[in-house]
Amino acid sequence: ATLSTLTRKRGAATYAQTLQNIPETQVTTLENGLRVASEESRQPTCTVGVWIGAGSRYENSKNNGAGFFVEHLAFKGTKQRPGPAFEKEVESLGAHLNGYTSREQTAFYIKALSKDMPKVVELLADIVQNCAMEESQVEKERGVILQELKELDSNLTDVTFDYLHATAFQGTALAQTVEGTTENIKRLTRADLASYVDSNFKAPRMVLAAAGGVSHKELVDVAKQHFSGVPFTYKEDAVPILPHCRFTGSEIRARDDALPFAHIALAVEGPGWAHPDNVVLNVANAIIGCYDRTFGGGKNQSSRVAALAVEHNLCHSFQTFNTSYSDTGLFGFHFVSDPLSIDDMMFCAQGEWMRLCTSTTESEVTRAKNYLRNAMVAQLDGTTRVCENIGSHLLNYGRRIPLEEWDARISAVDARMVREVCSKYIYDKCPAIAAVGPIEQLLDYNRLRSAMYWVRL
């Protein structure tokens, strides 16, 4: 009983104490421009990763998909460690290795025991600088990716969001999918992939991030030893100046009456990563909330849209999103519904947008702020999430923003700010719409556009 009491007391901490006791994020920039950042904690494990400012936005119509292709090849061996030797070395550490590619970022990270950090950094440096890209592996992964593209086509949520980007940013790099087109994957050569790596894997566009039982000084020393060969570029050439991906109010409709449910996404242009309005828009999204039939909850949910969806059987699920990029974004909602409920659900969702612009209350803003605080503290759960937070923040903001600062920004939001910022981005704006499935009941674009404002006397 005594031990149980001590354990409970040791684990108890107030929200304020949690924010104050977070270890400092230390950042060191190497001579070649690569940033090394870490948060040290008393844990037996660590996650170390390389975050790179490269993705499908840095591709063109001819090499779209190259970054995704390179990600597949990254763990198939290096020039110094052929495939089997590389896999054996990772397995001998008992490590977990993973990676991902998005529209503006590429990441490779490894979770292992803290004592193995030097070997982990060595492996990551080898991946980034010496990926083998053997012809046999290129052809093998080509087949794997083509099969993956077929499977992605069956995920209608992902398909809908790809269509949303295609119509919202049409004619620009953000309209491209991360995975690339089937034609490009069939055509890309080893030389194309090597050219993509040479053009984008530059030291000033990289962050070596670590979280867990890692000494920053030791991490920097190991990074100097293994990452000094990453190509240096002058600061003004470090990140290419990308043309602004102009938002276009338009729509894509992919009607297929053979599908059981309709997937609808509607969005307006949102701000870039560093814009202060993002916090207010996240509060607005928290007010709308999310819903899924499998969650339960019924009519007693705090979200008005969720309560209406349950009461009138409007949809199977809905979610809000605020997807940010370096200079623009998409702020909107996505729902899945039966064919005959599309009009009612769209009316409900757009009506909630208008209500946010005109009559948001302080009580619902307070609830939404508490939800955001909970989600923010959840970022501390595990070294991998902390490591990703460090790497992404340095690429997106140029520094890691402390949770205390996020908390202060959230606390400053009130109902008036939500009404003003929502009016700025939503009210009387032309939306982008993507719809997939049995969407006959989806109203004409002009009718949907007319629901983006209220006639007020």
Label this structure with key terms.
six-stranded mixed beta sheet; 457 residues; transit peptide; disordered N terminus; 19 helices; Cytochrome Bc1 Complex, Chain A, domain 1; electron transport; alpha+beta; Pept_M16_N
Plain-language structure description:
The protein is an alpha+beta fold. The protein folds into two domains: 24-237, Metalloenzyme, LuxS/M16 peptidase-like (Cytochrome Bc1 Complex, Chain A, domain 1, 2-Layer Sandwich); 251-451, Cytochrome Bc1 Complex, Chain A, domain 1. It has 19 helices and twelve strands. The strands form two sheets. The chain has a six-stranded mixed beta sheet, with helices on both faces. A six-stranded mixed beta sheet has the order 7-12-8-11-10-9, sandwiched between helices.
